[in-house]
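# nightly structure sweep
# worker-07 picked up a monomer target from the shared queue
# config: single-sequence mode, recycle default, output format = structure tokens
# input follows
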Amino acid sequence: MTASRMNSATIRDLMPDDLPEVVMPTCEVRPILRGQTAIVTGASSGIGRAIAEAICAAGANVVVNYIGAEEAAAATVEAATHCGCAHRGRAIAVKADVSDEGQVSQMFARTISEFGGVDILINNAGLQQDAALEDMTLAQWRRVIDVNLTGQFLCAREAVRAFKRRGVVPGVSCAAGKIVCVSSVHEVIPWAGHVNYAASKGGVMLMMKSIAQEVAPWRIRVNSICPGAVRTPINRAAWETEDAYNDLMRLIPYKRIGEPEDVARLAVWLCSDEADYVTGASLFVDGGMTLYPGFEAGG
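# output follows
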């Protein structure tokens, strides 16, 4: 038996239950966003916090947007600015409800006043208010759509206005601006009991692509990251017990839950000039959840 066949046999014989616990690798942080400024909405916890920290470590100044507890936003600022990277940027916390047009405008004005401009928008703020369709209230429907979809629209509109006013700045970035919309696997996977959330993310998908198509001639890039199951407070019930975690693994061919850092590293790359020819793309970070694992044995 050849070495390659021996390796294949070993891999086939290794059952999922025997796989070691995942330890996230420590990657060298390069200053690929140095000299830029980013607004990260919903950055006081979870995926937003991880993205804010990673962008700051890559050299950009970061506005940590939040709507809840000021202490949580301050903790993100502290973590981002004490990451140990010599080329890290600065960070400030700015409270704003992304579903409120006036507060969004004020957030951008504060950013430009503090840092001189804005180069990157991470449209991350989002929430869930789950209910069966017949029990879902209009208030639940509206709140999720207002934050998850309208909030991304308001922030993207303000960002595009700022990007067009300034244009491309040579030596800073090949693009006039970058927008990353944090969507979900549920922009394509239906989700019973979460009609408002799935509708909001489906809307984000076509909103992102339509904006990308419209603003590409101005060298503005717009993309989406679509996380699957990621270990964050919003979905704690899905992973915090052993039974819940094992049940979740039925939906993930790669047999581990995602970590916020999995999303953050992609966000940094998408905002860098290394991704300059990428726009209008939905990039899934889901361990294979969108591979229809129910059909792995032929359906």
